[in-house]
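New to this. Comment on this protein:
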Amino acid sequence: MSQCPFAYSAPLGQLFINLASISRLAMTAATCSNTPMDRDEIRAMRRSYGELGLSESDANPNPITQFEIWLTAAAENPYVVEANAMVLGTSADNQPKARTVLLKEVSENGFVFYSNYNSDKGKEISQNQNVSLTFPWFPMERQVIVLGRATKVSNAESADYFATRPWSSQIGAWASNQSEVIASRESLQKSWDEIAAKYPEGPDDLEGSAVPLPPSWGGFCVVPHSIEFWQGRYSRLHDRLRYTLDENKKWQLTRLAP
C-alpha cells in the first residue's frame, strides 16, 4: 500500500475538493514518495453518478447551442478548472496522439484553437485532418466529444487573435519552436529574452513595439460532423446523446447505450 497522503484510499465519491485545497493537494503530492499505487487503490477510484440526466426533450435541437449552454455552466462552476480546456486527438502514420489545448472560439462554423503549425499537432493535422475534441468536465459528471475536420483559419483571423494575447505569451510563441528537441531550459529562456528585447513590452507609440504574428503560428477550426453529450448517471446507465449531420447537412439526434 502506498503511504502517500495524496493517494486515494477511499472511493472518489467520498472526496470533496474546493478551490482553496487544490494547491495544497498539489504541493502535498509533490512531496510524496515515488511509491506507486497498487491495483486495489486504483480500482477503488470509483464513484456513483447522480440523478441529473439529459433527455432528448431537454436537449437543444442545435448541438452548438447545446454546447454553449454546457460550456457556460462549466465556466460558472467553481470546481471546473479551465472550462475551455479540451483534449485534441490526432492521428498520422497509424499513430494516434492526444494533448490538451484551449478552445478560443465556438460558432456555427466550428471550434477554434491556436498553435504552432510546425508543432507535432500541426504536422499531424496536415497529414490527416480528421480530429477529435473532448471536453472533460469531471466535477459536473459531463463530457462532450466532437468529431470533425480541422482546417487553418485565415491569416487575418490568426493575427487578430494573436494581438489580444498577453505580451509574454506573444513572445513565447516566437521563442519556442514547439515540439522540437532543445538543449536545455536555459536555452529556451535565452531565446525568450532575445525576442523580448527585440519587441519590448509597452504601448506601440511610446516605449514598446507591437509583436507581429509569427509566420508558423495560427488557428485551426474544427468543423464538426458529430457532437456527443455525455451525462453521468446511476448504475453506470449514463445518458449519451449524439448529434450527427445527415446528407442534407441537418443535425440528427440519437441516443447511445452507455
Summary: The longest strand covers residues 217-231. The two ends are 33 Å apart (CA to CA). The chain is about 25% helix and 30% strand.
